Amino acid sequence: MILPSFRSTLPISRRRLLRRAIRPNPRSSLIEVPVADRTVHLKVWQVQVGRVPVYLLDADIEINSPWDRELTAQLYGGNQDTRIAQEMILGIGGVKALRALGIATGAFHINEGHAAFLSIERSREHLDKGLEFHTALEVIRSSTVFTTHTPVPAGHDAFPSPMFEHYFGGLFAAYGQHKQAFLRLGLDDRRQLFNMTFLALNTAAIRGGVSKLHGHVSREMFREFHGGIDVGEVPIGHITNGVHLPTWLAPELKELYHRFLPGRWLSNQAHEDVWKAVELIPAESLWSVHQELKERLIRLARANLREQRRRNSLPASQIEEVRSYLNPKSLTIGFARRFATYKRANLIFSDPDRLDRLINDPDRPVQFIFAGKAHPADHPGQELIREIYRLSSQDRFRGKIVLLENYDINLARALVQGVDVWLNNPRRPYEASGTSGQKAALNGVINFSVLDGWWEEGFDGSNGWSIDGRTDADWETQEKENVESIYRTLEQEIIPLYYNQGTLPFQWVSRMKRSIMTLSPKYNTHRMVIDYVNDAYIPSLKRTRLFVADGYEEAKKVADYKRFILENWHQVRISEVNDEGPRSTGGAGETLKEVNATVKFGPVWFKDTAVELVYYEHRHDGWHQVVLPMEPIRQLSENIVVFRANILEHLKHGPHFSIRIHPISASFARRFELPLVTRF
Ligand SMILES: *Cc1c(COP(=O)(O)O)cnc(C)c1O
């Protein structure tokens, strides 16, 4: 992890925990990373976060050149040269730091492509030990888990191929014979780029996105990469993100949960049963704690605004005016996050007059609290902030729409604990997961969001509200429909529910409870880590153990097998399909016919392949691919075999179904581990 100038930003109490991870002899305590034709030296710091040691790499040391000393000063910034050097520091330096610390490694988990060079470093280690290139790759693949986080192709790091070759010059001086093979691990053929996500995908047996929808989007995005198989078959899964409950839950609510939830509820937070007891919390108690948190937020917001005005040297009267801003009795809607343009922070302002009517309704007023930061290089994002600031300064919105500065984790915490409704209106499907809504949910703050990221699976119709609109129209239409949905839902559902019953809105509190009960057990880090352990880390460790046993025997076997298949696959051909075979009657009385496919295998053993009949079936929710395995029935010669499957009589080869063949192996981590599919 690279952190910007952490020594100055960490609070005192944390700073004491920060220490040099490798002390003894100052020379040998530095990590050396070859970057192009130079060496970047790194210090390693350790910070203890709960029970987890986190190691930080720091290039700000005298023996580095001034340019290199800046490499770990800023997360994003600089140019492609900065970026590739940073990623080499993270990937290569990261592995070297673990070695220097003597930390045994099992599985490596790459989050986003940024750290994927670690697979190259690990390959080099194995090559140094004398392992063959492809065997090394199998070992690495078996022990690597990759999580992608970005649903837009442009968000994935890629470098011109010659740049990659230049920066890894040291590696290729030693292992020039593998240069092309290394390059191919990340090569995006069409654009002649070395793509970090491709590198990660190619070197990880287990890969996934960060929500159900994002898994789907990733499968679509990397369909071509996997040889153009059906989207549903692309071997990328998902584990939905979750939030760390003790960090985000308000202490006052924690107290309340302690009183009504079963003992050990925090340890058992991933169990749905634990949260059913939320039903037992008296509405008055939940509401009064919520009001308390809201009042605290409003005090904080006013202090924030006063400070803003003081810093901008506004007259005293305008500083004092802030005291009357925001009303704890008004329905309060929060929007706080990075101001990336896809999050459309200004969407609610699309019809300022309609918004005016909501905000200034004398009986049922609504107020908005905004906070967030834009990336320093994201000028459209900064323009969004300016726009919201200008709007919030209009007379009609003053004190009812506020924009808070210095958005950080503390302000984020107060917001997700203190507002009534958490608004999220990203352009679908750009929000891979989103987590601030999860933080809000466990605090009884109700989500009102586009069905994107985690909310697409979290929303059940009763635990919040959705912002609707077509997802298959052009952006402008989608935006228009989302806007209409936002206003309509506010006017017809959210505001009436909030102001329904005087001082204690029972129905609102019921919805808060639904939100807490249904969402807390799923969208927490306990559940997430359990999923990663069961579905990623343990399978990965088991596979690694198998692959390295007996002098890497299994890894060698798999590598040899893949090489053989890759070299000979062009000889595998489906030579003939006959779909006029004998008729029979199926289980439901339907007429079936036999389809035969004749396959020439060349030197490939037919049992190392799967021959399948594939067609599409229309169901209520669209078209679905159906895959029927075909069974061998006749061997015509040593390498020609006839296969059979029975299908509905009316389906015809060509217009309705096709035959395909692809290599399989019990040692593959997944189907389509090799991107080879031959169709007919
Ligand atoms: C949770 C959090 C985020 C992420 O919020 P999203 O809605 O997922 O974008 C960003 N910044 C801070 C400070 C946070 O606490």
Describe this structure in words.
This protein is of the alpha/beta class and 680 residues long. The strands form six sheets. A six-stranded parallel beta sheet has the order 14-13-12-15-16-17, sandwiched between helices. Strands 18, 19, 20, 23 and 24 form a five-stranded antiparallel beta sheet that branches. Strands 1, 2, 3 and 4 form a four-stranded antiparallel beta sheet that branches. A hairpin with a 2-residue loop joins strand 21 and strand 22. Helix 5 crosses helix 6 (133-142) and helix 6 runs antiparallel to helix 24 (525-568). The chain binds pyridoxal-5'-phosphate. Pyridoxal-5'-phosphate is lined by residues 337-338, 408-409, 412, 434-436, 439.
Describe the secondary structure blueprint for this structure.
Elements: H1 6-9, H2 12-15, E1 19-20, E2 31-35, E3 38-49, E4 52-58, H3 66-69, H4 80-101, E5 108-111, H5 117-128, H6 133-142, E6 144-147, E7 158-160, H7 161-167, H8 169-174, H9 179-184, E8 187-188, E9 193-195, H10 196-202, E10 206-209, H11 212-221, E11 237-238, H12 245-248, H13 251-260, H14 272-276, H15 283-311, H16 316-321, E12 331-336, H17 352-359, E13 366-371, H18 379-393, E14 401-404, H19 409-418, E15 421-424, H20 436-442, E16 446-450, H21 455-458, E17 464-467, H22 475-498, H23 506-519, H24 525-568, E18 573-578, E19 583-585, E20 591-600, E21 609-619, E22 622-629, E23 631-637, E24 640-648, E25 657-663, E26 678-679
Parallel strand pairs: 5-6, 6-10, 10-11, 12-13, 12-15, 13-14, 15-16, 16-17
Antiparallel strand pairs: 1-3, 2-3, 3-4, 7-9, 8-9, 18-20, 19-20, 20-24, 21-22, 21-25, 23-24, 25-26
Bound molecules: pyridoxal-5'-phosphate.
Residues 337-338, 408-409, 412, 434-436, 439 line the site of pyridoxal-5'-phosphate.
